[in-house]
Batch of 2 targets.
Target 1
Amino acid sequence: MPGYPVKNKMEMDMRLILLGAPGAGKGTVAKLLTAMSGAVQISTGDILRAAVAAGTELGKKAEAAMKAGDLVSDDLIMGIMGERLKEDDCKKGYLLDGFPRTIPQAEALKVLMANIGEELDFVVNIDVPKDVILDRLTTRRTCTGCGAIYNVKSNPPKEEGKCNDCGGSVVQRDDETEEAISNRLDVYNEKTAPLAGFYEKEGMLLTVSATSSDAVIEAIEERLGATA
Ligand code: AMP
């Protein structure tokens, strides 16, 4: 992806879940990894935002929950992922960003992957302190064209409001108001954080306590090297 440095090539096909609170850096890490490997980033949030923008049936069903910072239904999400993981670009691996988000989604993913004969490598739990998360979410800006992530303080676009990569509009997401952010963090703690325990029991959890995406990438490379 333009704008993200290609550091080295990861030769193996990776199938990872990126777990972490909103603002933990899952999207940034996923974009770095796609530039280093053949894996694709699959963000259920991006898929849903595109559906809302296009006004599709899916978008209409998801819009209200998204705006409030609530989760959309497991059935809707599993419908999307059941189709998405069968697409050709998934053959060289994928980075699941923002999915699964509930225990039922994690269980359904296990069945789905067994049915298509694929296995997860591991789950990266990006653990970032709450004050950093809050600061990042309120200052984050996102390109409506390609999903590139900016920050008004640490990484603003060269031209205000315009994406460096695709020229799309760089805006604050609808669900990044103070109220929605606070709800998203509560929802994360209640519904998504228990996934760390779920994957720990499966022996698949790699927790990285780091605020820099480079440190997260290093930990992933180390684990991939160890399991290759
Ligand atoms: P994200 O971009 O990952 O923060 O997702 C934005 C919003 O999309 C979330 O706050 C949810 O409303 C919805 N969403 C994204 N992924 C999921 C998921 N796996 N399960 C339920 N809702 C989701």
Target 2
Amino acid sequence: MSSNSSSNSSRISGFHKLGVPERVQRVLDFAGLPAAGLAPLFHGTGHLPVALADQLIENVVGTMNIPLGVATNLLIDGQDYLVPMATEESSVVAAVCNAARQCHDTGGFITSMSATQMIAQVQLVEVPDPANARLAILEHLDEIRDVCNACDPVLVSLGGGFRHLEVRIIDAASGPMVVTHLIVDTRDAMGANAVNSMAEKIAPHIESWTGGRVRLRILSNLADRRLARARCIWHVDAIGGADVRDGIIQAYEFAQMDPYRATTHNKGIMNGVTAVVLATGNDTRAIEAGAHAYAARRGWYSSLTHWEVTRDGHLAGSIEIPMAVGLVGGATRLHPMAGACLKIMRIESAEQLARVIAAVGLAQNFAALKVLATEGVQKGHMSLHSQNIALMAGAQGDEIALVARRLVELGTVRIDVAEQELEALRGGA
Ligand code: MEV
């Protein structure tokens, strides 16, 4: 494909066989982006200037690079996406490509979002009359709205701002606590700064209305008013038949019932989710914490996805996951690669990004369950892992593929064997 041509399909067969420069060009063509400005970002390793890194965190001594891959084949709400994923784990990007390929021609993913609301918590202690204090706070709804909105007129002008008030009583060991939730629509911002400012501003008012003492004023990462949802139907014939479908459902049921399995099941989902969150400069820890807390919302830790059989015998998968990602602020705005990744996906709102990430999480889970329920992970994993081992043994250029292939043939992906094979290869050359 020439650098001027563009394609709207994310179904790029043989993408993985291209060299890195050709892949970069295909991605830029797909996104309709000028090579002049963005291509250098992808070819180099120093895309985060150290002077900028020094502004982002403290005591900077350098930067650390993570591979950035692009998942193909994703059809989401009728639009094709190439999705950048930053991860150090082999197989993760390939798994999404495979899962998405198997549902691309039958409609892909359908997504939605509950809202873009964040919760800030204000903890009030030393309240002997918590029920009375609770109502006193609720009575000040209008004032609370005004104080919160005055903290961030820009957010309000963009259609966001204070939405709801909740006040809960928690019986703690040291006595009752009255916990106020400020529920704020943060639109395209992740929202931590906005809601934390509001919580700090409202705190003295809450003290004066109740006579109690405010301690913590901070957002909750359990962003259950910011749920991203994705669903997809994989046709039974496209995934290898009814036995594969049933294996996937039994794998899911295992995770649903058993926290030991659910942890690994959800870890697999987060392989995809976190990779896109990181590629876009968002807060991976916030997303991870919110996802796992949400997975335990019923009082036991369970699967973030749901799998079932449709009336036509196809496989229906769905996911619902807190997704507090933003487009403005912090590394998302400042990190040049994060900006490039958003452009590749043609992201226009935080909601759109959240929905794409949910679809990637679902695809990742499909791929993991399918392979686990059939051939097992080691076969595919080992062929990719063998390349790392070949590299570690000192293989270079063409030697990498040759040694890796030999390790797979031998069924022993070990560094000592790779060293022997490399020696034999060089000796025989
Ligand atoms: C490995 O990073 C992820 C898996 O363990 C996920 C799973 O078991 O569902 C394969």
